[in-house]
Amino acid sequence: MENAGTVDAVNVEDAEESWNVVATTRHFAGRVISVRTDTVEMPGGVVADRDYVVHPGSVAVVALDDEDRVLLIRQYRHPMRRLMWELPAGIRDVPGEPLVECAARELAEEAAYRARTWHTLVDLATSPGMSDERIRIFLARDVEPIPDEENTYVREHEETDMPAVWIPLVTAVEKALSGMIHNSPAVAGILAAYAASADGFKGLRPAGAPEA
């Protein structure tokens, strides 16, 4: 039985919507993020304050080799006080750069690998109740290491000690489901890659697919 709040399953799809903002206050602006409060007009005409982080967006890469192993890197994350296993990833910090090119650059810089075959794997809103950050996760296959003489990127800060490992995709799934991997794009990317492998990745969008 349907009621006023029921939506047919066929129509379960995120849609653009923008409620009226009557006031905005910016509290902080840093190198990457800023923090603001919007006073938003709610249904019924009432208003409420909503605090959130403004973020430029990110990309991440699930790199799979021909043995169905996934590439993971370990990085210190200060807010979590943890060494965390993650996907190669980075901020969208070059205006106008195609997202797949940004992802390829991060794969090269953080892991010293490149790939010949790219697809869009999954799109994430990392924490939509408190941030506008969007992450596009790509699937990269036909990977190969970048020769040392071609790798001129100099790592700094947390990236100076960032080991990389190749582990079977099924093992990565087990580690994600058992709570041994916590990084959200890593968990989402690993599970999405495992699901997409069921049909040989035929259902994936092209690398240049627009963000909905």
Keyphrases for this structure?
212 residues; alpha+beta; globular
List the helices and strands and how they pair.
Blueprint: E1 21-29, E2 34-41, E3 47-54, E4 58-63, E5 69-77, E6 82-86, E7 89-91, H1 99-111, E8 113-125, E9 134-145, E10 164-168, H2 169-177, H3 184-196, E11 205-206
Parallel strand pairs: 4-9
Antiparallel strand pairs: 1-2, 2-3, 4-7, 5-6, 5-10, 8-9, 8-11
Helix pairs in contact: 2-3
Give a short overview:
With 212 residues, the chain is α+β, with helices and mostly antiparallel strands.
Which radius of gyration do the C-alpha atoms yield? 19 Å
| Sequence of secondary-structure elements | EEEEEEEHEEEHHE
The portion of residues assigned to helices is: 10-25%
Mean pLDDT: 92
Shape label: globular
Number of helices: 3
**In what range is the share of β-strand residues?**
35-45%
Q: What does the main sheet amount to? A: 5 strands, mixed
How many β-strand runs?
Answer: 11
> What's the end-to-end separation, in Å?
31 Å
Description:
The protein is an alpha+beta fold. 17% of the residues lie in helices and 38% in strands. The protein has helices at 99-111, 169-177, 184-196; strands spanning 21-29, 34-41, 47-54, 58-63, 69-77, 82-86, 89-91, 113-125, 134-145, 164-168, 205-206. The strands form 3 sheets. A 5-stranded mixed sheet has the order 7-4-9-8-11, sandwiched between helices. Helix 2 (169-177) packs across helix 3. The longest helix is centred in the middle third of the chain and has 13 residues, at 99-111. The two termini are 31 Å apart.
